[in-house]
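Sequence only, no structure available. Ideas?
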Amino acid sequence: MQHERLLFFRGAWLHLPEHHVTLSDADQALADKLRPLILAGRFDPPWVRDLAATVHEREERVRAVLRKLVGQGEVYQVVRDLYYDRDAITELAAILATCHREHGAVHAAHFRDSVGLGRKRSIQILEFFDRVGHTRRIRDTHVLRRESAWPAVESAGTDSPPNQLS
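Reply:
I predicted one. Tokens follow.
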């Protein structure tokens, strides 16, 4: 007898359909203040310390809520204290794919020029994609992993349900 279990992935997380991160009313109120600020930053969102100062909250509290938003797939932690909105990450993944298609691999300089950020931030983003398994670093380049399909690249900007695996 074979049992079929479904897994969903939201952001970088796999979970059973009945499992999800929930926010208290207070956390949701703070999240509602933070997400527009992160989204407005697009490819250069504010650091946690700046978010905390803007919304007049302690940094620890802001970090805790942002970690919950990561669990919900609403934001991604690129480096410590720097979170990107899921739509911005999806856009960055599309830019990465375009760079890869045009150059055969992604070089930091090409990616930097495509996104209009400095070298340091561009490398942080490239390392994020390496860390989550979307790309793999080979010497000074990054290549897309064939087995990786970035979640929701095709549906950027839509409120789609979590992807389902069976």
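The first strand starts at residue 7 and ends at 10.
Hope that gets you unstuck.
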